[in-house]
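Second opinion, please. Please look over this fold, written as tokens:

===
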Amino acid sequence: MVLSAALLAGTVAAASAQDDTDAPEALPERVLFIGNSHTARHGGLDWVIENMVAAETEPRPFDGTARTENGVTLEYHYDNGAVNTIRKGDFDAVVLQGYLPHSRTGTAGSFLEYARLLDKVVRKSGAQTVFFMTWPQGYGDWSTLEDTIEAHRLISAELDAPVAPAALAFERARAERPDLRLIGDDQIHATWEGAYLAAATVYATLFDRSPEGLSYSFGISPDDAAFLRRIAWEALEEWRAGEAVEG
């Protein structure tokens, strides 16, 4: 009788442990977005993703916060208050976005250095680092898609941090729909469609789920929004599969 009871207790404990192991990880609820005008464009990634989450079949809590300044790098944020914000914010994830390569130096060195420094702060706070890979500038010779991919591949592997590959999503969208403008006349900033695609890519990366089927369209045409949501998921799958190679 005693042995049977012990065996039963062990079986229940093992089943309970298995249940705990199989339980899905909680999705991020409190997310900080750190970047420049690419993160802040058209209401900001935090606002667009909040609306995407609210459009899910089963709405759930989401609180997005942003620290942005036009034209700045991760170095600027590290030196100007982002560290304290991360430490005190009780965030689940922190999305980092910077210029690549640095327009002043022509290399990705600054991005890599301050990505590492900020990631240490993020991890110590208990949050997860996510990188928002923006598209190359439309002018100048210091920024190419290959540079951007290489830098994000390196930092992702080194820090074991996911990347939201918006730059790849833009390339996929252009290949299928060259008529759809994603970048404005300044050759730098996203149009409404481009900003929606970027947000959909970050959404897919943050929550590891496809944005396809969401009803929120950000004021652009429903057909265009559906197309861009599909592209966002396909770009993330391409990135994860390692099909987007450097060079």
In short: The chain is about 50% helix and 10% strand. The two ends are 69 Å apart (CA to CA). Confidence is low (pLDDT under 50) at residues 1-18.
